[in-house]
C-alpha cells in the first residue's frame, strides 16, 4: 500500500500516538515499525525521502510506504528481488 504524499505520514503518526521513529507493540501483540527512508531510484539514481509504517501481526503484515508511486514501488520491488513479482506466486495459485 502506498501514499503519494509524504505529509500524510505525520498525520498518521499523530493518529497512532507515535511521536517519533520507533518500534513498539500494542495491546493485541501487533508490532509497529516506523521508519524514514532515503531511497535511491534504480533507473535515475535520484535520491528521495520516503517513510514507512509496518504492522506485523501473527499471520499478517501490512506495509504503508509514503512519498512514492505504484511505478516506483514496482521498480523497487523488482530491483531488490531480482525477478518479476509474478514469478514469486506459486504455480498452484496462478
Describe the structure.
The chain has about 90 residues and is an alpha+beta fold. About 25% of the residues lie in helices and about 35% in strands. It is built from 2 helices and 5 strands. It has helices spanning about 5-15, 70-80; strands spanning about 1-5, 25, 30-40, 45-55, 60-65. A 5-stranded mixed β-sheet has the order 1-5-4-3-2, covered by helices on one side. Strand 3 and strand 4 (about 45-55) form a beta hairpin. The model has no long low-confidence stretch (mean pLDDT about 75).
SSE layout and pairing:
Layout: E1 2-3, H1 7-16, E2 23-25, E3 31-40, E4 47-56, E5 61-66, H2 70-81
Parallel strand pairs: 1-5
Antiparallel strand pairs: 2-3, 3-4, 4-5
Poorly predicted segments:
none
How many strands appear in the DSSP assignment? Answer: 5
Largest sheet: 5 strands, mixed
Question: Order of SSEs, N→C?
Answer: EHEEEEH
What brief labels describe this structure?
single chain, alpha+beta, five-stranded mixed beta sheet, globular
Summarize the structure.
About 25% of the residues lie in helices and about 35% in strands.
Amino acid at each position: 500500500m502506498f501514499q503519494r504524499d509524504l505529509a500524510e505520514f505525520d498525520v498518521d503518526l499523530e493518529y497512532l500516538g507515535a511521536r517519533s521513529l520507533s518500534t513498539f507493540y500494542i495491546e493485541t501483540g501487533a508490532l509497529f515499525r516506523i521508519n524514514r527512508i532515503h531511497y535511491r531510484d534504480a533507473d535515475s539514481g535520484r535520491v528521495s525521502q520516503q517513510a514507512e509504517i509496518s504492522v506485523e501481526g501473527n499471520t499478517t503484515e501490512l506495509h504503508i510506504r509514503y512519498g512514492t508511486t505504484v511505478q516506483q514501488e514496482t521498480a523497487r520491488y523488482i530491483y531488490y528481488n531480482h525477478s518479476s513479482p509474478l514469478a514469486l506466486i506459486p504455480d498452484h495459485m496462478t
